[in-house]
Design goal:
The protein is of the alpha+beta class and 199 residues long. The protein is built from ten helices and five strands. The longest helix is centred in the middle third of the chain and has 15 residues.
Length: 199
């Protein structure tokens, strides 16, 4: 399966949740959360870079774009690890809450904050908290980051690996091992090294 990791190009069309990006003469339609739209201020002709996720299901192929890796990682977590959450709901959550607000809501079990996102009711919000906190266990890492026990880079690398489908316990071991060998790695270097450890 081909993966489009990012796009850099000029904005050809700009709507609050949809952009058309001209990348060397090819127009890519990319759906974005409101938060990404607001951060980029993508007026026509402006050059922007989007972190992307190519969603393929049966007869549907959709490209989603985000201003940061963290937004894309939360999107992946939601659609891959929480039952019943599709891309539209994940985009709505990211449009209503910042990544930090979402993490804090999951860590503290604040269902009400998540339920305020468009199209997300109380039951769905409860399922998100339950599945991310208890089944996947990501809340533990987010809490450790907030308390300074786990570094931001280590936690972000771990979450990126979980979003890619690795078990959290395996991701944590790989990240810890790589940091033990070289504590000065950047996030990208750490992620690459940890992924090599998983092979």
């Amino acid at each position: 399966m081909a993966m489009i990791a990012f796009l850099r190009g000029k904005v050809a069309e700009s709507y609050p949740q949809r952009l058309v990006l001209d990348v060397n003469g090819v127009g890519y339609e990319v759906f974005v959360p409101i938060s990404t739209f607001d951060k980029l201020n993508p007026y026509e002709g402006k050059e922007v870079t989007l972190k992307t996720y190519f969603h393929i299901r049966e007869n549907i192929q959709v490209l989603y774009g985000f201003s940061t890796d963290a937004e894309r990682d939360v999107f992946r977590l939601l659609i891959d690890r929480v039952s019943g959450i599709g891309p539209a709901t994940a985009i709505a959550i990211l449009g209503s809450l910042s990544v930090e607000q979402f993490k804090q809501a999951v860590v503290s079990g604040d269902v009400g904050v998540i339920a305020r996102a468009k199209g997300v009711g109380k039951k769905t919000a409860e399922r998100i908290v339950l599945e991310l906190k208890d089944k996947v266990g990501v809340a533990q890492t987010w809490e450790s980051q907030a308390r300074g026990v786990t570094s931001q880079i280590a936690g972000d690398a771990e979450m990126a690996m979980v979003a890619l489908g690795y078990k959290q316990v395996d991701a944590r071991k790989a990240v810890d091992l790589c940091l033990k060998n070289n504590p000065d790695l950047s996030l990208e270097e750490l992620l690459r090294a940890a992924l090599r450890c998983m092979k």
